[in-house]
């Protein structure tokens, strides 16, 4: 009898282990976790373009600015006041839990087209979200917007769960603090791609999109809005943006080495000068293959002619020319004033300042440092001002 009990119990234990072995992790090679990529940037810094570079990849579920919904729900708040709500929304979306949008969208049945700029996501234009475009092909927003805008909202979640990479683009973080918990969250595998751009080019581009950016700019300026003269608004906004980009960069340097490896800095100018090489670096960092059709496409869109028609479209254009446009279209007085408020950030990121109108318009003078900030070693000695070598 005892022997029988013993045998039965052994069998039960064996069955239990077998079950564990079959169905859960400790005894099995770990399933590759989805990779979560946050493209962290600011307005008019080429982040739609970088978002497209990720979004067109057949392994990527991409959303552009999901936290737009948070900001548009609380337009009287401040960027800092909304940081945590933005952070928590990102975490849910990374985990493909789209119920988080209930807080920011009208109740009742909704379509995937309720999402801000949904058609920028190839994943929402191909199966399982929409059957009109194959997963492995470049999709065009204009076509997708017409053909896939009736799809129900629950397909967003279904689509998200079918990808190995979830990539979100956000311009609504002004320091790294709200993101610390996500960096160490065991349910996430977060990688940050920090995209920066020459503040003078950003400034010029913002001048052309002032109306589109109005609500956002007011949230950025927050309480100070009422104390500022109207003509100072663009400089004050840029000051906040420049400082926040620098704060993010510096905060990373003080993190443990293991966490620093979850951060990748890219300058928009480096990207447009060597689109294939830089895209390849970026893909490699997050574990994506640079497939031949994508190489072809990247080549096409960066060599195309024209300056791009609408503020939020990434059309074929001469990207290099666009990145230099401020040099002949922005008056030196503005450049000079901007360099005062953004000088520190420019020095650290390798954007050389101009000291005269002549220097500004002399295009044989390269204003991009030959070194890349990512190649520099950050040294911070106790009690001393941080320096870069
Ligand atoms: C790139 O451009 C060429 C020539 O216009 C075109 O034939 C090709 O289909 C394009 N490829 C992609 C992936 O857009
Ligand atoms: C860049 O754009 C400017 C202004 O549109 C134009 O005058 C110039 O010829 C362009 N340069 C190149 C190399 O395309
Ligand atoms: C433009 O810059 C180049 C490189 O520094 C310099 O050699 C050249 O003299 C400059 N031209 C003018 C007109 O200032």
From TrEMBL:
GO terms for biological process: carbohydrate metabolic process; N-acetylglucosamine metabolic process; sulfur compound metabolic process. SUPFAM superfamilies: P-loop containing nucleoside triphosphate hydrolases (SSF52540). One of its GO terms (cellular component) is Golgi membrane. Residues 36-347 form the Sulfotransferase domain. It is found in: Golgi apparatus membrane. It is an enzyme of class 2 (transferase). Residues 1-15 form the signal peptide. This is Sulfotransferase.
């Amino acid at each position: 009898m005892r022997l029988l009990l013993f045998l039965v119990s052994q069998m039960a234990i064996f069955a239990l282990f077998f079950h564990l072995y079959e169905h859960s992790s400790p005894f099995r090679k770990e399933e590759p976790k989805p990779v979560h990529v946050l493209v962290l940037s600011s307005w008019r810094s080429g982040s739609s373009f970088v978002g497209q570079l990720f979004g067109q990849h057949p392994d990527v579920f991409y959303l552009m600015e999901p936290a737009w919904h948070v900001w548009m729900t609380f337009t009287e708040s401040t960027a800092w006041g909304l940081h945590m709500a933005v952070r928590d929304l990102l975490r849910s979306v990374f985990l493909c839990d789209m119920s988080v949008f209930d807080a920011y969208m009208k109740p009742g049945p909704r379509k995937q087209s309720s999402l801000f700029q949904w058609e920028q996501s190839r994943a929402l234009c191909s199966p399982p979200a929409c059957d009109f475009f194959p997963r492995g092909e470049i999709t065009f927003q204009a076509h997708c917007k017409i053909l896939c805008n009736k799809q129900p909202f629950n397909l967003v979640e279904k689509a998200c769960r079918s990808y190995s990479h979830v990539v979100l683009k956000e311009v609504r973080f002004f320091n790294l603090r709200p993101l610390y918990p996500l960096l160490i969250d065991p349910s996430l595998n977060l990688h940050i791609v920090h995209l920066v751009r020459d503040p003078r080019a950003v400034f010029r581009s913002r001048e052309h999109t002032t109306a589109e950016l109005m609500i956002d700019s007011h949230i950025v300026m927050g309480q100070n809005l009422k104390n500022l003269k109207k003509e100072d608004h663009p400089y004050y906004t840029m000051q906040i943006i420049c400082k926040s980009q620098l704060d993010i960069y510096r905060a990373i340097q003080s993190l443990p080495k293991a966490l620093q490896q979850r951060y990748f800095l890219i300058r928009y100018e480096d990207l447009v000068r060597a689109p294939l090489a830089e895209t390849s670096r970026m893909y490699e960092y997050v574990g994506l293959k640079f497939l031949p059709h994508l190489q072809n496409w990247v080549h096409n869109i960066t060599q195309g002619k024209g300056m791009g028609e609408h503020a939020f479209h990434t059309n074929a254009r001469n990207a290099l020319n666009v990145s230099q446009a401020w040099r002949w279209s922005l008056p030196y007085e503005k450049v000079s004033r901007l360099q005062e408020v953004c000088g520190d950030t420019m020095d650290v990121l390798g954007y050389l300042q101009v000291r005269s109108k002549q220097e500004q318009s002399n295009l044989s003078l390269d204003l991009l440092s030959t070194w890349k900030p990512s190649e520099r070693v950050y040294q911070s000695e106790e009690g001393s001002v941080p320096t870069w070598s």
